[in-house]
């Protein structure tokens, strides 16, 4: 079972891309949007674990297949990537209260987005549910640590370093969105 947990952890880690989301966390905080590490981690975990057990049912109730769900997530990720690369604002963050950054856009769609949720559904075919939950928990601990130390990272990177990092990872987000879009079209 430990081998399965490690496998699931690595698969989810690459899809969630917590390290790649660091520039987004920094960008949100620079817009005075508070991200509570515990709240973001718990919300992400609740979404992922709920989707593990009832995801297919929820999608089928709305007549949505997994591919369509992934396409919708790809569009949201693409828009976030555009914001990062072009320095423009499409999502109107000023209308959010200071606590809502923990749920949207951090918990959903960045961490527990369409790619992650689709991956969780596919993992069910290969791994035991307890192993998937173990992999989710390990990734949530990593998420908590990264968000908790994002202020320290921002301070040490400086404004210019954070800007460069944001643009580089924005391009990577765009590529992930296009890949998701292409694979599910």
Describe, in plain words, how this protein is organized in 3D:
With 185 residues, the protein is an all-alpha fold. The protein has one domain (2-13, 36-184). The chain is 78% helix and 0% strand. Helix 1 crosses helix 7 (129-148) and helix 3 (37-61) crosses helix 5. The radius of gyration is 16 Å and the shape is globular. It starts with a helix and ends with a helix. The model has no long low-confidence stretch (mean pLDDT 84).
Tell me the strand percentage band.
under 5%
Element order: H for helix, E for strand? HHHHHHHH
Count of the domains: 1
Number of helices: 8
Low-confidence stretches: none
β-strand number: 0
Layout: helices, strands, pairs:
Layout: H1 2-16, H2 22-30, H3 37-61, H4 66-86, H5 103-111, H6 114-123, H7 129-148, H8 150-184
Helix pairs in contact: 1-6, 1-7, 2-8, 3-5, 3-6, 3-7, 4-6, 4-8
Brief rundown of the structure:
Helices cover 78% and strands 0% of the residues. It is an all-alpha fold and 185 residues long.
Key phrases:
0% strand; 185 residues; mainly alpha; 8 helices; 78% helix
